[in-house]
Design brief:
Blueprint lengths: L7 E4 L4 H28 L1 H27 L4 E4 L3 E5 L4 E5 L3 E9 L2 E8 H4 L5 H8 L7 E4 L8 H14 L5 H15 L2 H26 L5 H17 L7 H27 L5 H17 L5 H16 L6
Antiparallel strand pairs: 1-2, 2-3, 3-4, 5-6, 6-7
Helix pairs in contact: 1-2, 4-8, 7-8, 7-9, 8-9, 8-11, 9-11
């Protein structure tokens, strides 16, 4: 496969269609800012002010982005026989080839990027955000290079160029890295702590979800769905399955599921003005399940969300390779 010649240097440029799209979005945000600040604020000062300032900030940010990318071309990629460098107005990242563990191209929401993972970051404790990223196909990275800013760069050729430079560099022996990775994974895999974290996230979510139902008088079902993914991410921080384990998956499914009925029960207890005693909780639980079993259609939304949450816990996750 064809690769780029090294040294390689490329400045940012956008397709004309994308530039026009960003320009339209900037003008649209500016229009909304005027609408909020000069019209809506007359009737509702707080909403008008906050909405106007928010839209104004977005408009200014998009304008700054267009100037730096299209006109000043402040974004650039540089590849030499010694290092790879990505520079932008906000930050500058440079990595020598011997420091890089791997580089991986990925696509997420139609945006293509090159993820660079440094060796010093390989054995760090997995973060919840990294685990969450892995669920949506984003690889682990120390920093990434967004290719959307470089219209004339072929991501395949760039990936091959970077991989070739990594392979040619003087790096630490791969066998030593594999041993370190294995030891790190053994230390990190803690089933008890993983389940405890999952239950803690579930408990916090149930309280927030239940109070939102009571206070807002609406059932935002996206909350337990999002939290289910967060539960899986928190679990994966401390434990990664060697193989798909049906018992673990059922347990995770149940943890994701129970946040839904717990939230509804919390909302019911608060709305009735009851104390959070064991007898009151048992009484509300019994009455709620009696009502649900006798009137399942009235609770169809809750039931569907509970099933979705269980499915996320039971079938979403990752295993070590």
């Amino acid at each position: 496969m064809e690769k780029y010649d090294v040294p390689f240097f490329r400045k940012s440029n956008l397709k004309l269609g994308k530039s026009i799209g960003y320009l339209f979005l900037m003008l649209l945000m500016a229009g909304f800012a005027i609408l909020f600040l000069f019209f809506i604020m007359k009737d509702d000062f707080i909403i008008g002010l906050l909405g106007g300032l928010f839209m104004l900030v977005l408009s200014v940010f998009i304008a700054y982005f267009l100037v730096t990318v299209v006109i000043l071309k402040k974004f650039y990629i540089e590849i030499t026989s010694e290092y790879i460098k990505f520079s932008s107005p906000f930050k500058c990242k440079i990595a020598y080839w011997g420091e890089i563990d791997k580089a991986e191209a990925y696509k997420y929401n139609k945006n293509v990027a090159l993820a660079i993972l440094l060796k010093k970051d390989v054995n760090k404790k997995r973060s919840i955000s990294s685990s969450f990223n892995s669920l949506v196909g984003v690889p682990a990275y120390s920093f990434q290079i967004p290719i959307m800013y470089f219209n004339d760069i072929d991501i395949v050729k760039l990936s091959l160029t970077v991989e070739d430079q990594i392979n040619n560099s003087e790096a630490v022996q791969k066998d030593n890295d594999d041993i370190l990775n294995e030891n790190s994974e053994k230390q990190d895999n803690n089933m008890g702590k993983a389940i405890l974290i999952a239950l803690l996230i579930c408990a916090i979510s149930s309280i927030i979800y239940g109070l939102s139902i009571y206070k807002l008088e609406k059932n935002y079902m996206v909350i337990p769905v999002f939290t289910s993914m967060l539960i899986i991410s928190g679990f994966n921080k401390y434990y990664i399955e060697k193989i798909f384990n049906i018992n673990i998956r059922i347990l995770l499914g149940l943890i994701c599921l129970i946040q839904v009925p717990i939230a509804v029960i919390i909302a019911a207890i608060v709305s009735l003005g009851l104390d959070f005693t064991a007898s009151n909780m048992v009484s509300v639980i019994i009455e709620y399940f009696r009502y649900t079993t006798s009137n399942p259609l009235s609770q169809i939304g809750i039931i569907i969300v509970a099933i979705v949450c269980f499915s996320i816990g039971a079938f979403t996750g990752r295993t070590s390779k």
